[in-house]
């Protein structure tokens, strides 16, 4: 069988075969096609070779990440009062910085959406480098009332 | 052609996993990391070319994701979301004291695979070196399209988002890159045979 117009679409589909990302019925379509089409068969073989050469994360990284997540979730579950004054002071310092730069209340700046933007809408817009302010994402999810209450506590 | 089985939002399995992570279930963290550590690491590696940095950014990505879990509204796939966080981490120039880690190959790290003998391992390493060398020679956008597609099966739409291009360009870059790989690897094999 000669290369047909359908081969282009078939190759796009076939390129999801090595990683196992295809639905079973699509995988079968690809397998049926390469049986009768030598060109696509060669292309699939090359794509399999590339897939086999994929790098793996370093040994031990997985355990390190899980340990870090467990530690992080413990911090999140510990009531603020038990975390001591240092955490409160750090939060207040970050808040003061954010307020002084007007960052918290600039509705139109490129990064006030913060992690909410990442979670939805257009997560890939490019914030200018200026908008990376250390610690600001820590305040995401904290309501304005809570922030103001925090400030009041420190007045 | 709707090419990706999971569509645009997380599947119910992914949603359930996130819910368990949200409630602080440690085993769910393990599953989340097992599922997505490889794709996130490879994405960062393809952008930075630095394994230690890729490992650090990968770890930071998961921590940021945990902090942002409550804000994840589920209108994208989890991997797409994680890659967006990773991309921001790379741009923020995240840097931590790196530990040297031993680089492994996914195909050799699978504990299910019987360990190949020394000869077989040498051949496997040669093959991997040859293919990885060719991938590294590709221009950036082609390299990223090829690796995101073939290593981890991303849709062209997700590749476009992760690499800051259009879906059409992601597809064209993929096929251009693939054609170059075919030429280079075939040429190499012809040379090897004539040696
Ligand atoms: Zn064909």
Give an account of the 3D structure.
The complex is a heterodimer of chains A (155) and B (195). Chain A has 155 residues and is mainly α. Among the domains of chain A are: 3-52; 102-155, no CATH class. Chain A has helices at 6-14, 24-36, 38-52, 61-77, 85-100, 114-119, 144-153, and one strand spanning 55-56. The longest helix of chain A is centred in the middle third of the chain and has 17 residues, at 61-77. Chain B has 195 residues and is mainly α. Chain B folds into 2 domains: 8-104, Rna Polymerase Sigma Factor, Chain: A (Orthogonal Bundle), CATH 1.10.1740; 116-195, Orthogonal Bundle (Arc Repressor Mutant, subunit A). In chain B, 71% of the residues lie in helices and 1% in strands. Chain B has 9 helices and 1 strand, in the order ααααβααααα. Chain B has helices spanning 12-22, 26-48, 51-68, 78-91, 106-109, 118-137, 140-152, 156-163, 167-194; one strand spanning 104-105. In chain B, helix 3 (51-68) packs across helix 4 (78-91) and helix 8 (156-163) crosses helix 9 (167-194). The longest helix of chain B is centred in the C-terminal third of the chain and has 28 residues, at 167-194. Chain B is globular and about 60 Å long. Classes of the chains: A mainly alpha (155), B mainly alpha (195). At the A-B interface, helix 1, helix 3, strand 1, helix 4 and helix 6 of A face helix 2, helix 3, helix 4, strand 1 and helix 5 of B. Strand 1 (55-56) of chain A pairs antiparallel with strand 1 of chain B, so a sheet runs across the interface. Bound molecules: zinc ion. Residues 3, 7, 10, 33, 37, 39-40 of chain A line the site of zinc ion.
Précis, in short:
Chain A contains seven helices and one strand. Chain A is mainly α and 155 residues long.
Bound molecules: zinc ion
Count helical runs of chain B.
9
Radius of gyration of chain B, in Å, reads: 18 Å
Kindly report the oligomeric state of this protein: heterodimer
> Beta-sheet strand percentage of chain B?
under 5%
Number of strands of chain A: 1
How far apart the termini of chain B lie comes to: 45 Å
Question: How much helix, percentage-wise, in residues of chain A?
Answer: 55-70%
Number of strands of chain B: 1
Into which percent range does the helicity of residues of chain B fall?
over 70%
């Amino acid at each position: 069988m000669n290369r047909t117009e359908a081969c282009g679409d078939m190759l796009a589909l076939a390129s999801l075969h090595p990683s196992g990302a295809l639905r079973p019925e699509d995988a079968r379509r690809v397998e049926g096609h390469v049986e009768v089409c030598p060109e696509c068969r060669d292309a699939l073989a090359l794509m399999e070779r590339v897939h086999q050469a994929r790098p793996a994360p370093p040994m031990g990284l997985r355990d390190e990440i899980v340990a870090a997540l467990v530690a992080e979730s413990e911090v999140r579950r510990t009531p603020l009062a038990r975390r001591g004054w240092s955490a409160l002071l750090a939060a207040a310092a970050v808040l003061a910085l954010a307020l002084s730069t007007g960052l918290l209340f600039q509705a139109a700046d490129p990064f006030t959406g913060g992690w909410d933007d990442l979670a939805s809408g257009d997560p890939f817009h490019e914030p200018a480098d200026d908008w990376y302010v250390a610690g600001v994402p820590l305040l995401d999810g904290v309501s304005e009332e809570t922030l103001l209450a925090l400030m009041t506590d420190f007045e | 052609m709707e090419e990706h089985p999971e569509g645009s939002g997380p599947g119910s399995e992914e949603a359930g996993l996130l819910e368990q992570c949200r409630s602080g279930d440690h085993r769910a963290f393990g599953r989340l990391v097992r599922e997505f550590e490889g794709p996130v690491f490879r994405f960062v590696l393809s952008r930075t070319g630095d394994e230690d940095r890729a490992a650090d950014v990968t770890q930071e990505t998961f921590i940021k994701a945990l902090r942002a879990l409550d804000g994840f509204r589920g209108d994208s796939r989890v991997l797409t979301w994680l890659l967006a966080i990773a991309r921001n981490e790379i741009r923020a120039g995240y840097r931590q004291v790196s530990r040297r880690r031993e680089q492994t190959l996914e195909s050799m790290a699978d504990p299910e695979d019987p360990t190949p003998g020394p000869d077989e391992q040498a051949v496997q390493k040669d093959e991997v070196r040859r293919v990885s060398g060719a991938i590294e020679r590709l221009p950036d956008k082609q390299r990223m399209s090829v690796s995101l597609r073939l290593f981890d099966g991303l849709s062209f739409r997700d590749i476009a988002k992760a690499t800051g291009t259009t879906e059409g360009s992601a597809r064209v870059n993929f096929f251009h890159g693939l054609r170059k790989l075919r030429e280079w690897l075939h040429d190499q094999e012809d040379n090897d045979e004539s040696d």
